[in-house]
Amino acid sequence: MGNADTLYIVVPCYKEQEVLPETSRRLKEKLKSLIEKGKIGAGSRILFVNDGSKDETWPIISRLHEREPDVFSGVNLSRNRGHQNALLAGLSTAVTRADIVISMDADLQDDINAVDAMIDAYHNGFDVVYGVRSKRESDTFFKRFTAEGFYKIMQALGVDIVFNHADYRLMSRRALEALMEFGEVNLFLRGIVPQVGFPSTTVTYERAERFAGESKYPLKKMIAFAADGITSFSVKPIRLVLFAGIFIFLCSLIMFIYAVITKFAGRSTSGWSSLMASIWMLGGIQLLALGIVGEYIGKIYNETKRRPRFIIESVLDSNGEKNG
Ligand code: UDP
Ligand code: MG
């Protein structure tokens, strides 16, 4: 690990025309100061990934690259594939060109001053450095409540996940190369990176407010993201259904004995309400079980198709790929 390590900062962008001018300015400053301090090599780049936005995002990125090819690089996806896939597209482009890769959001909610500490940690021998949010004061109550609840549920389900860590992280080239070996379609990077292993540490930072534009994660995407995260990593939900099934079955045996006794006691019509109740209950449980099983079958279906997770339309980068 020399001081001429090439750093790539990978930034997925979806409809970020409002933030890109400022983000690119601040990231460039950061990159320059890191190069001056000798922490990273001159080949370092800021790599913007346009996640299929149809606004000015890609024109802005290509203009940045035209003007300063030794600072800015770009990847353009053929269509919107979501944050995780856009990030992966960026990482897979960077892995052949960089020694260190840091991923962060385009809205600068992740404090870019934490980059220094991340690179120091890398030089101290850590392959993965997780950026962890110390506070969430800038988030709305709803966002904070749902996000923290999500991390707690994930941990309760036994998923190895770093609390309050999003996708602001540093990875060494060898950690990234290992990450690329994971071929799943339902990609949930936060859960996979800990599976890669290698020495890791955390750096805490305060999460700021998005300084322009609005969140690209509406509730619908948040729920889809959480459901994907849970079903991609844990079979506990399906086990819960199994236990519920066993429990209900035991209850129904007792109900059966009760029904027989009632019948012989000549009070059978009074069993109507309990009969109705159990029909409804069993019907509900069966539907729920089917839904969860279906979720897993859907995953198997997607994985067996082995479709490409993204298609890169063009790459702008003056460095070219490095070998070895
Ligand atoms: N993003 C993306 N594709 C999408 C949605 C979001 O690449 O379909 C990017 C977005 O441009 C940003 C990052 O993912 O850089 C995080 O999104 P955002 O800041 O809107 O989410 P929040 O911070 O509100 O959770
Ligand atoms: Mg944000």
β-strand amount: 5-15%
Derived from helix and strand composition plus strand pairing, the structural class reads alpha/beta
- Provide the list of bound ligands, each named once: uridine-5'-diphosphate, magnesium ion
Order of SSEs, N→C? EHEHEHEHEHEHHEHHHE
CATH hierarchy, class of the largest domain: Alpha Beta
Largest sheet: 8 strands, mixed
Query: In order across it, which strands form the biggest sheet?
Result: 7-5-6-4-1-2-3-8
Secondary structure: number of strands: 8
Question: CATH superfamily membership of the largest domain, which one?
Answer: Spore Coat Polysaccharide Biosynthesis Protein SpsA, Chain A
Number of domains: 2
Care to describe what's here?
This protein has helices spanning 20-36, 57-67, 83-94, 114-123, 141-156, 173-179, 189-196, 219-233, 236-264, 272-305; strands spanning 7-13, 45-50, 72-77, 100-103, 128-133, 165-172, 200-205, 312-316. By secondary structure, it is an alpha/beta fold. It has 2 domains: 7-215 and 308-316, Spore Coat Polysaccharide Biosynthesis Protein SpsA, Chain A, CATH 3.90.550; 236-305. The protein has an 8-stranded mixed beta sheet with strand order 7-5-6-4-1-2-3-8, with helices on both faces. α9 packs antiparallel against α10. It binds uridine-5'-diphosphate and magnesium ion. Residues 12-14, 16, 51, 80, 82-83, 86, 105-107, 109, 210, 215-217 line the site of uridine-5'-diphosphate (UDP).
Q: How are the elements arranged and paired?
A:
Layout: E1 7-13, H1 20-36, E2 45-50, H2 57-67, E3 72-77, H3 83-94, E4 100-103, H4 114-123, E5 128-133, H5 141-156, E6 165-172, H6 173-179, H7 189-196, E7 200-205, H8 219-233, H9 236-264, H10 272-305, E8 312-316
Parallel strand pairs: 1-2, 1-4, 2-3, 5-7
Antiparallel strand pairs: 3-8, 4-6, 5-6
Bound molecules: uridine-5'-diphosphate and magnesium ion.
Residues 105, 107, 109, 210, 215 line the site of magnesium ion (MG).
